[in-house]
Amino acid sequence: MSPPRISVVIATYNASHLLRYAIASVLHQDLQDFEIVVVGDHCTDDTEAVVAAFEDPRIRFRDLPRNSGQQATPNNAGVAAARGEYVAFLNHDDLYLPHHLSSALACLQGSGADILVCAHATIPALQREKLASGELVAVGDGFEPSGRFSPRTFHVASSWLLRRAAAQAVGPWRLESRTWVTPSQDWLFRAWRRGLRLEATREVSLVAIFSGGRKDAYRKRDAAEHAFVFRNVIETDRLRAGLLASARASIDAQLARGAKPRPWPRRLEKRIRAARDRALARLLSAVGLHPNTLAMMRKWGWRRGGLIRSRKQLTG
User: Is residue 294 part of a domain?
Assistant: First the structure.
């Protein structure tokens, strides 16, 4: 069997109620030359049965013999098993829109980049009442105001497409105990610092429903939002145009706020603050630290992995 064009790596742990929608969103792609490598972090629920139920030979499942308690380990195992020329990641609580792989691949090839990051539509928490009435509101996230990649912007791993050679050049994701930022953002920073070419597109091609921002998300195993989005945006296009319009309007509004003229004292203050932040970011980068390190320390504590620990406590 010839290698697939794209390997989609899905790291998962005891979230079969969400994983089924993530996998299905890949199977609904308009580009079908892919494999799906699902790696469980020693799952104890019905993950293996859920994966097997798809009965698709393009899906491979491996469950790690020990639980690592973090995303980096299964993602590294998935990349090691990938056979495609390109590698994409999909968090088990995110969903690809049907054009994600095809549009990302066209953009990556057209730019000649090693790594592409896409904008995404975030479904805010606490909007269950709107879902019940058939409404869907999304916020545009993960875009670069300048149009150029910056390691300071958070780009969820589900938004990446990269050449497998780039993954090999940068090396494995580092464990959360070795970085103050998340392992995914640390990996992008290392790729950027190594001199790989990273490009960013504002095209929204995936939906993020962050379990990390939803209290008791894993403890309750609630998939109502995922089911609604999958049914109305991916399986059918009933609300797809509205979701994309909502996310794009959000991006446009954020860009407009950034470009809005301000009184000169505030403009001067903003420029001084921006210059200070750039200088600090360059200094941190020069010594091999992510430019958001100090900000993450202030918010999540001085121990590495503080953000991940807080999210585990929130979600159960």
Answer: no
- In a domain? residue 188: yes
Secondary structure of residue 49 in the 3-state scheme:
helix
Please indicate, yes or no, if residue 279 is contained in any of the structural domains: no
How many structural domains comprise the chain? 1
User: pLDDT grade, residue 48 (50/70/90)?
Assistant: very high
Q: CA 99 to CA 101: how far, in whole Å?
A: 6
What residue type is 151 in one-letter code? P
Residues 209-243 pLDDT 10s: 988 777 777 788 889 899 999 999 999 999 999 99
Q: What is the CATH number of the domain that holds 230?
A: 3.90.550.10
Confirm whether 199 is domain-assigned: yes
Indicate the pLDDT class of residue 120, thresholds 50, 70 and 90.
Answer: very high
H-state helical runs in the chain: 16-27, 47-52, 72-81, 100-111, 128-132, 164-170, 183-194, 217-220, 224-229, 240-259, 264-286, 293-300, 306-315
Residue 126 confidence (pLDDT) above 70? no
In whole angstroms, what is the distance from residue 300 CA to residue 294 CA? 10
Structural domain span for residue 43: 6-259
Q: Output b/e per residue, 257-274; b: 16+ Cβ within 10 A.
A: eeeeeeeeeeeeeeeeee
At residue 136, does pLDDT exceed 60?
yes
